[in-house]
Structure formats: structure tokens, C-alpha cells
Amino acid sequence: MDINLALVLLLAPFLGFLANIFLGKSLGKNISGAIGTIAVVVSFAMSLFFFLQINQTGQPISIHLFDWIAISNFNIEFGFLLDQLSLLWLLFVTGIGSLIHLYSISYMHDDEKMHKFFAYLNLFVFFMITLVMGSNLLIMFIGWEGVGLCSYLLIGFWYKNQNYNDAAKKAFIMNRIGDLGFLVGIFIIGFMFNTLDFATLKATILAGNNLDAYWIAAAGLALFIGASGKSAQIPLYTWLPDAMAGPTPVSALIHAATMVTAGIFMITRLNFLFDLAPAIQDIIAVIGAITSLVAATIGLVQNDIKKVLAYSTVSQLGLMFLALGLGAYEIAVFHVITHAFFKACLFLGSGSVIHALHHEQDMRKMGGLRKAMPITFITMLISSLAISGIFPLSGFWSKDEILMTAYHQSPVLWVIGSLASILTAFYMFRLMYLTFFKEFRGSEEQKHHLHESPALLTFPLIVLAILAAIGGLISLPGHSWLNHYLEPLFSKAHEAHHLGTTEYMLMAIATVGALLGIGIAYAKYIKQAQVPEEDEKITGFSKVLYNKYYVDEVYEAIIVKPINLLSRFFRDYIETALASIVFGFGKAANELSFQGKKLQNGSIGFYLFAFVIGFCAIVSYLILAQKKF
Amino acid sequence: MDSVLNQIGIENYIFLSVALFCIGVFGVLYRRNAIIVFMSIEIMLNAVNLLFVAFSTYHQDAQGQVFVFFSMAVAAAEVAVGLAILVAIFRNLGSIDVANLKNLKG
């Protein structure tokens, strides 16, 4: 029973993919979209069913399909694990996925390749479910690669634009670098423990056998590199902002809410391993904190509405990694969930704006949309308040938990995290003010066409805004349903923060910081009515920020160029040398046969002569050889 | 059994056979008339046959003689085919000089 339902959960999006890719064109846009959406809704219903079941019983369901790879005592089974963590992920992947599919029906309606879009989205959901449900690292890796592929396909969905193709390739290659780290981590774990199965691994590690600290640290580092590729951490984060080339629903689903949290999922899944490598945890925390600050500073000056949100995503992911590094896995998970709500809402809201303005993404050409698009405005406002950490919206609770944990363990990291949060509040409200307040700055024609988006676009926005508002309820300090729910996963029990004076003070500081950020944005963009300058006029430090610290250029100079030089060297010299050797053999054979051809002159007398000589030679040789012995 | 072999001696048979064979070889190498070449080949063949028979008697083993029968039968067949080819060549070229047969070079 459970097996069948779990297979339905897994395969529904895959069937949706098959139907859309092979029949989609002939079915028409509406049916194609409906199939895609229903496939994910079915998965969501199944996830909900299992979730309610496990919430009651607390018993993980493990499903063994067949033995996949069996080599002497090393056995990898093909199976799935539905435990607290995977179900939580499944719920919001399929839940938000359903909403975004619904949204896409309207958003992509003018696109001629809509069936393909839904096919890719379904395939993505399928791989994401595989990633989350896999009972061992290798199945997780299948999903991991699959979502990377779908991300590539969807970023480059409008493949006629070469820039978009480049962005897609960049995302794919950067991810491949991380994937190599992940793979190395899997190999080390397989080598150390002879198993890749999560349950067995946990039992082995908790039993404390075969533990070599160096190898554990190596595995942890390799896995973290994998996670930092997928979840856009320094130094592999540059692909995520470029990934905004894809259609906006894709940005919302893949590059904000679900796929980029895969790294956090993986580290949480293997928390027992990371607990044993404190040095790696420190690295994770520091990298997370730095990423969150760096990305937030870049976000301050971006003018593309989606770029701001993209850097905001990188920054928030950094905060999650900070929590992971501090060992507060359940808080990271909490922030993943609240972030999925408000960031998906923000992206879909920006999609609604872009839709209304006919694919205008530059905030300098927006403004005053509040009146024309009230629903989009209110939902985005709620989400912006949530991401800024304003009481009592969801972001307040999750971000505050992270900062509190950081404060108790390392005040420096707390300062960095708090700074990033203040900047977040600033750039989010910069976005809001520039987009929705003051006068409209676009063309007259756009102004004429301004309209609120249709219900299919606003419905997901409303649902997500409500979730972004109340999402914090799942883990209130002192009474945390989430912590209790996730307890079986963690080797160490994490105590909830007792609400003392320090905690209230920290909350106050965070709130004041957020209000400060909003206030500065208000002063700058409402009171002084500033509009960001044209690209050429940006100078000084803003220019450095606007150009993203020139990281892309630096990568170009220190990695891409040398590799190109090296490949050119190989092409021009090494390949030529090898080719001349290979061709040399051919030429020699040709020359020899040309000479040999002269022997065949057609004269029978000559043939016979040669024959006799040869025969005599053989006979004399045999006689001589016989004498010898 | 006081046979011819014992009176003459096996060595002489070998010498004769080798001499015949060499004559055949030189005939093949130096003559240009295809029929003479053909005859020379027959001489070589029969030199070998002679040796076969001589050793067969020497060893008191009938196998060699049986073999020679086969060999002669095959030689006869070969002669038939060979002569037929020569006739065909003569009809085409009007000569059976092997030096002229250079078209076979391909």
C-alpha cells in the first residue's frame, strides 16, 4: 500500500513529463498546462497523506525496490526513505510546485513552446522528489544531477537568445564543479563505511566504529563543496544571479524555493557526519556568513528586479548555511521553509509585474504600480516585510533564531548576519518603493496597458503571502512544533532558546535594524525621490557593487582565460605533434607499399625466379637451423 | 629381398632425383616457351615422385607408393587444365611466350 502510494508520489510528475513532451503539442496549451499541474498536485496530495501519517506515528517509511549494485560486501539498494525530513521537503516542493505550475499556465500562455515548459517543470519536480526521497547517497545523486539538468534546460528555455544560453551553460558548469565535490564525498563515504545508505550510515557513525577524523573531515569538505555549488555559496555562487535568464516561474521554483535548498537538505540529511567534523562546520558557518553579506551588498545597487531577488536568495541561503555551520540544522530547515514561501511569492510577484509591463525588468522604468496592481502590491509587501524580519511575519522568527544561535556561539558571525539582514531590509524596500510607489516612469504605451494580473497569477500570490505571513507558527520560540517533529533526525538534542533578557534584546536589535534599513530606503527613494542612475553614471564603490565586485571578470581572468590558453596550447602544439606521429605511420606505410608495388611487374619469369630464390632461402635456413641444434 | 634398390643404392636415387629436380627448376626459370615450362614442372613433379617411391621401398612401407598414385592422378588433371589454359592464351595472343603474359599484373 505504502509502496504503491509512494510510487504514485514519485512517478506522477514523470508521467506528466512524458505526456507533455510527447503529446503536449497536439493536446493544446490549456490541457498541457492542466496535465502538468495535476501531476504535481497528485504528488502533493500523496505527500500530505504520508506527512499526516508520519506526524502521527513518527515511524519513517522505508521502501526497498530492488538491489541496484552489489559487489561482494558493498551493496547499494534502489530504495526510498520517507522520513520527517524528506516529507517536509516533499510538502513544500510539491506544494509550492503546484502553485507555480498553476501560475505558469497563465504566465507562459503566450509562449509557443508551453508544453515543453511544462514537461521540463514536471521533470524537475520528479528529479527533486528523487533527490529528497532517495534512501542512499547515490539515488540522491541521481536527483541532484537531474535537477541540475532541468535547471539548465529551463534557464536556457528561450534558447534563441545567446545570453540566456550562456547563462544556462554557466549554471551547468558551475554546478558540475560542485557535483564533482559531492561525488568525491560519496566515494570517501563508500570507502570508509562500505555503505551509502543513510540509515546504516547513521547507525555506523553513531556506534563510533571506523572513525578516522581526517577522512570524515575530507568527506565533509567534499560534500560541502557539492552543497555550495548547488546552493550558490562563495565561491560558486555566480551562476544563480545569471540563472534569472529563465522564465520567472522557473526562478521562483528552482532558483529560489526548491533546488537551491538541495545543499541544505543534503547537509541536514548527513548532520551526524558533520557533527563529527567541527572544523568543516566552522568553514560552513564562515562561508555562509560571508556569502550572505557579500550577496546582500551586491543586491543594494542592482536595478533589474529579478537580479535583486536573486542576490537576496544567495544572501538568505548564506544565512541558512550559517545556521548549518553552527549545528542548528532545524533552524536552517525552518528558514528554508519560510524563505521558500516569501521568496517564491516575491518572484511570482515580480513575474506579475514583468507580465504587466510586457517583459520590462528594469526598476528604473517602473514605479507607481501600487494603484494599478493592488493584489500584487499587497502580497509582495507582506513578503518583503517577512524577508526583512518584521514581527510577527515568518521571516522574523526564522531569521531571529539563526541570529540568536550565532550570537551565542560567535558574536562576529552574529554581527555579519545582522548586517546582512539590515541590508536585506534596505534593498527589499528599495525594490518595493521603486516598483510600486511614486509616478510611473515607463513609456506611455506601457502605462496605458497597466493592469492587475489575471486570477491565475494572483491566486498563488495570495496563498504564498498568507503562508509567508503565518509560516512562523510552525516554530515559535519556546513552543516549536518543528523542533519536536525533526527531533528523531538529529544525534544531538538541540535545546530551544529560553527567552531571557538577551533574547528579547537580540529580537529588539534585529527589529530595529530591519526598521532602520526600511527607513533609509524610505528616506532615499520616497522623501528624496531618488531613482538609480543610468549605468554609465554609476561611480565609486556603487560601481564596484553594481558590477558585482567584478567576480565574474576575476573568474574570467584567473580560470577561464588560462584554461582557454591551455587548450589552445594543446591544440596548436601537442595535437600537432601527436598528429604528425600518427600521420607519419601512415605515410611510411604508403611509401613502402609504393616501392613494393614495383615488385609486381607481371613478368612470370621474374615471379618464378623470386619464388625459387625464396624457396631456396627457406630450405637453406631450415638446414642451417637444424645443424645448429 | 634383393631388389634393384639394393643393387643401385638409395644415394644414387637421391642424386638422380635432385638432378632431375634441378633440371626442372632451371627449365622453368630459363625457358620462355610455356609448353617447355610446363614440361619442366612435370619433371620436377616426377623427380619428387621418384624419391617417394625409392624411400617407400627403402622403408618397406607402401604408403609412399600410394601417395605417388594420387600425385600422378592430380598431375594428370593439372595437365589437362594447364593445357586448356595454354590453348586459350594462344587463341588470344597468338603466342605462348611467357614473357608476353604481362596482362595478369592487374
Structural class of chain A: mainly alpha
Summed up, the helix count of chain A is 26
CATH architecture of chain B: Orthogonal Bundle
Provide the β-strand percentage band of chain B.
under 5%
Rg of chain B, alpha carbons: 17 Å
Helix/strand order of chain A, N-terminal first: HHEEHHHHHHHHHHHHHHHHHHHEEHHHHH
How is the main sheet of chain A built?
2 strands, antiparallel
CATH class of chain B: Mainly Alpha
Report the portion of residues of chain A in β strands: under 5%
Radius of gyration of chain A: 30 Å
Mean pLDDT of chain B: 87
**Average pLDDT metric of chain A:** 88
Which runs of chain B of at least 5 residues are low in confidence (pLDDT < 50)? none
Distance between the termini of chain A: 83 Å
Order of helices and strands of chain B: HHHH
Give, in spatial order, the strands making up the sheet with the most strands of chain A: 1-2
The CATH topology assignment of chain B is Helix Hairpins
